[in-house]
Amino acid sequence: MKPSSAIRVLLADDDVDDCLLFEEALAEIPITTSLSVVNDGEQLLKRLLSLEALPEVLFLDLNMPRMNGFDCLQEIMQNDRLKNIPIIVISTSFDRATVQQLFARGVRYYICKPARFEHLKSVILQGLSLIVKEQQGEIAWHQLVLNP
Hints:
alpha/beta; 5 helices
């Protein structure tokens, strides 16, 4: 499935290796994307507030320096211009209560960072496919934990 134009993806993650793997995974999936990366929460908010064209999806790591993903999420949801950006949390841990709390705060999907590259590609593809389908009105909004 390829949308007519590149999906603007913003990744907020402080781990350089994870960012490189994410970029490689995006390059190998059958959805055309345009990726921007920020490495901490303060950079994320500055970038979002300065952009004319907002990202069509934000992949948000929870454990970042200077401002963590929870604090970023709170700021995003309080901003009328930013609060409708689809957010996919990508994290190394899975705690059911935390995931439920994130969904209640507006997160669309939750990805547990997989150990294998093929699994990473799979969950990124799943997440982006669901976002594209939502934007095209093909599915109703719902919450989902994406696992390989």
